[in-house]
């Protein structure tokens, strides 16, 4: 048993631990937004641990260095796509009217929409004032 095998097995166990945390988060969290946040972070870390662990484990067991390059490509793909997919799902849930949990005290998306509306009102007001100035000249 080589060091690479031991490190690979440890990473697989690390990933499995995060999968278990993710499943507990899905059961414990009160609304879709908290569940998605928990599932995305834990599943991403779990997947990375398992995938990279398998690549390192393959180096230790069969001296196959081709596995590590493949697993690193998969890991980069997961790092890029998991957060984006979760954001898209959460935004779709918000736009379709899925309510926040009663205990949620901050709604940044609603605040951002209100700020955007205020900016549009200011732009309209400035546009009307500019038109009035042009008329007076």
TrEMBL record:
Keywords, ordered alphabetically: Coiled coil, Membrane, Transmembrane, Transmembrane helix
Keyword Coiled coil listed: yes
Residue stretches in coiled coil: 109-136
TM spans (from-to): 6-27, 39-60, 72-90
A molecular function GO annotation: sodium:proton antiporter activity
InterPro entries: PhaG_MnhG_YufB
Pfam families associated with the record: PhaG_MnhG_YufB
Name of protein: Monovalent cation/H(+) antiporter subunit G
């Amino acid at each position: 048993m080589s060091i690479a095998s031991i490190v690979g097995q440890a990473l697989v166990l690390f990933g499995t631990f995060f999968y278990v945390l993710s499943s507990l988060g899905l059961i414990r969290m009160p609304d879709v937004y908290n569940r998605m946040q928990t599932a995305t972070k834990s599943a991403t870390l779990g997947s990375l641990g398992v995938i990279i662990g398998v690549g390192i484990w393959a180096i230790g067991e069969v001296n196959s260095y081709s596995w590590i390059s493949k697993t690193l490509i998969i890991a980069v793909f997961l790092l890029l796509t998991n957060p984006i997919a979760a954001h898209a799902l959460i935004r779709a849930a918000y736009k379709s009217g899925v309510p926040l949990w009663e205990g949620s005290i901050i709604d940044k998306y609603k605040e951002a929409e209100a700020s955007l509306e205020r900016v549009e009102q200011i732009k309209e007001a400035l546009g009307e004032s500019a038109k009035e100035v042009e008329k007076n000249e």
